[in-house]
């Protein structure tokens, strides 16, 4: 399956100069979507995770079916204020300002092998903060996998864990 042909390019979104890689068209095509999930599952299977973590919100789309395919549970990594109960937070710097990610406290056993999944890695800021948050709660982060890596931004090198990707595009 040629996954690339199912990913739509939208120039100048969300702001001028950004070429946005839109997975909506991939999700719409039953065969392509199934192939993408199979590809992502294959990328992470040998890490033998106990849990698959997805980053809100497009990461959830991939982490959920991959976790089912691998027979693991799933962890939701969410933007601030979305999770009920006691949470653990991690703030990180953005180009302008900062942002905060949260996970539920007490659901991930210390030492659990967790793999992180998201749709796309650009600078790696979001994914790196997620790795740090998972490590903060005692998880052993086995690696991170992305459908798309934007090359040349140093994102993968910044992660501190092994990174795998299905597709690589120029930034
Ligand atoms: P970053 O923290 O810079 O790695 O940004 C990662 C997040 O921003 C990903 O979860 C993507 O959903 C989104 N993103 C960044 N750049 C793009 C792009 N060119 N096309 C689509 N999504 C993007």
In short:
The protein has 171 residues and is of the alpha/beta class.
Overall geometry comes to globular
Number of strands: 9
Average pLDDT: 97
Radius of gyration: 15 Å
Strand order of the largest sheet: 5-6-4-3-7-8-9
Helix content: 25-40%
Provide the list of bound ligands, each named once.
Answer: adenosine monophosphate
**What is the succession of H and E elements?**
EEHHEHEEEEHEE
Largest sheet, in brief, is: 7 strands, mixed
Stretches with pLDDT under 50, minimum 5 residues: none
Alpha-beta classification: alpha/beta
N/C terminus separation: 23 Å
Strand content: 35-45%
Give the helix tally.
4
Description:
It is a single chain. It contains four helices and nine strands. With 171 residues, it is an alpha/beta fold. The strands form two sheets. A seven-stranded mixed sheet has the order 5-6-4-3-7-8-9, sandwiched between helices. Helix 2 (30-44) crosses helix 3 (58-70).
């Amino acid at each position: 399956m040629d996954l690339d042909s199912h990913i739509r390019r939208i120039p100048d979104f969300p702001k001028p100069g950004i070429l946005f890689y839109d997975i909506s068209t991939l999700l719409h095509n039953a065969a392509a979507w199934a192939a993408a999930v199979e590809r992502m599952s294959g990328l992470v299977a040998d890490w033998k995770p106990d849990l698959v973590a997805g980053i809100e919100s497009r990461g959830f789309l991939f982490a959920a079916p991959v976790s089912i395919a691998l027979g693991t549970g799933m962890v939701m990594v969410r933007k601030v204020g979305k999770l009920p109960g006691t949470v653990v937070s991690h703030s990180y710097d953005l180009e302008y300002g900062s942002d905060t990610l949260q996970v539920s406290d007490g659901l991930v056993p210390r030492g659990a092998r967790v793999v992180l999944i998201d749709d796309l890695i650009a600078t790696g800021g979001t994914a790196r903060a997620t790795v740090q948050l998972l490590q903060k709660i005692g998880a052993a982060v086995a690696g991170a996998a992305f459908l798309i890596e934007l090359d040349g931004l140093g994102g993968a090198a910044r992660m501190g864990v092994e990174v795998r990707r299905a597709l690589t595009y120029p930034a």
